[in-house]
């Protein structure tokens, strides 16, 4: 097949999953635009391999679209060749064959009776399947907590209360061991705070996530708009892009042609109607996704967590929150 010539900015945008760079805030950093550790490593390699640009992790984290433009202008006509149709998306979310979990609690691993219980909180798609390999290697009794349709998504406190009730059905008193992945890190954190407030001892392990980390995704959405505002249409747009390779702005504008939120939700289903997905389940999944996303955006812990917190993250941290992801104090384990 043929090949496309891709400029420096286009190459970086492809890695970030951004197809239309015209409306991006030029002062936005790559971290603001949603760059995570994996994307950062890929961008670092691309700059070094194809453009002879050797930058530190810190420099890449604070790299702006404007600075990329300057690099591109300095390199004049330099381009790289990529195969037609090959793009690097930013979809860190993977849905299961069902779009909405049917069970709140999943027994992921049955250890010996004298081993502690570990409760794992899923990422934003609601399933704990992404944590199965991790669970298989741990010598504990492991339970996965999934966000089903009946889970309250009006606030992080409501979600924590919901999951505490499920945890108490398995283990009536502490100490509790909680693990949260990505979005689930915020849910685990608030659950830990609530359990501590009830007099329980809690240990937290956060896998590449924290309450502050989620805000980097909100900033990435804001920086797609000249007015730096974000609303439910962005969540619906992001949801569509989890299933289809489409331009963010095109999807956003198509959804925006509908006036009410319910009509916009119907438009989401309409855009995805050619896929073999159940429409009712698709609508429910989109509602849950939007609800959880904005709950995480608005979440600010009102109480301090006093227990042990361990953050596990990539060694080359491209997130503009510092190596502790805004958690202090915290034990950091780099992978």
Automatic annotation (TrEMBL):
Domain Carrier: 2-79
Reactions catalysed according to its record: acetyl-CoA + n malonyl-CoA + 2n NADPH + 2n H(+) = a long-chain fatty acid + (n+1) CoA + n CO2 + 2n NADP(+)
Pfam families: PP-binding, Thioesterase
GO molecular function: fatty acid synthase activity; fatty acyl-[ACP] hydrolase activity; oxidoreductase activity; phosphopantetheine binding
Keywords carried by this UniProt record: Fatty acid biosynthesis, Fatty acid metabolism, Lipid biosynthesis, Lipid metabolism, Multifunctional enzyme, NADP, Oxidoreductase, Phosphopantetheine, Phosphoprotein, Transferase
Alphabetical list of InterPro entries matching this protein: AB_hydrolase_fold, ACP-like_sf, PKS_NRPS_Biosynth_Enz, PKS_PP-bd, PP-bd_ACP, Thioesterase
PANTHER family, per the entry: FATTY ACID SYNTHASE
The name this protein goes by in its record: Fatty acid synthase
């Amino acid at each position: 097949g043929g090949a496309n010539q891709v400029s420096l900015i286009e190459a970086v945008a492809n890695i970030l999953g951004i197809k239309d760079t015209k409306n991006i805030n030029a002062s936005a950093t790559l971290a603001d635009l949603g760059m995570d550790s994996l994307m950062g490593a890929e961008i670092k390699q691309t700059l070094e391999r194809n453009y002879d640009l050797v930058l530190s992790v810190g420099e890449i984290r604070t790299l702006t679209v404007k600075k990329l433009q300057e690099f591109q202008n300095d390199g004049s006509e330099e381009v790289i060749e990529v195969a037609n149709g090959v793009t690097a998306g930013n979809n860190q979310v993977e849905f299961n064959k069902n779009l909405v979990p049917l069970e709140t609690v999943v027994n992921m691993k049955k250890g010996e009776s004298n081993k502690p219980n570990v409760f794992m909180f899923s990422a934003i798609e609601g399933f704990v399947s992404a944590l199965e390999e991790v669970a298989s290697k741990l010598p504990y009794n492991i339970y996965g907590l999934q966000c089903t349709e009946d889970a309250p998504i009006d606030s992080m406190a409501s979600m924590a209360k919901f999951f505490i009730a499920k945890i108490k059905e398995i283990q009536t008193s502490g100490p509790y061991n909680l693990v949260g992945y990505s979005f689930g890190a915020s849910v685990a954190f608030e659950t830990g705070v609530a359990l501590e407030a009830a007099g329980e001892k809690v240990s937290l392990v956060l896998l590449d996530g924290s309450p502050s980390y989620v805000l980097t995704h909100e900033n990435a959405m804001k920086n797609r708009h000249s007015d730096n505002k974000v609303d439910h249409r962005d969540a619906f747009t992001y949801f569509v892009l989890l299933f289809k390779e489409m331009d963010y702005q095109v999807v956003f504008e198509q959804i925006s042609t509908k006036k009410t939120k319910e009509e916009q939700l119907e438009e989401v289903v309409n855009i995805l109607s050619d896929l073999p997905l159940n429409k009712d389940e698709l609508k429910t999944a989109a509602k849950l996704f939007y609800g959880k996303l904005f709950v995480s955006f608005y979440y600010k812990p009102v109480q301090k967590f006093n227990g042990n917190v361990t953050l596990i993250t990539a060694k080359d941290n491209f997130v503009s929150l510092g190596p502790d992801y805004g958690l202090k104090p915290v034990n950091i384990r780099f992978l």
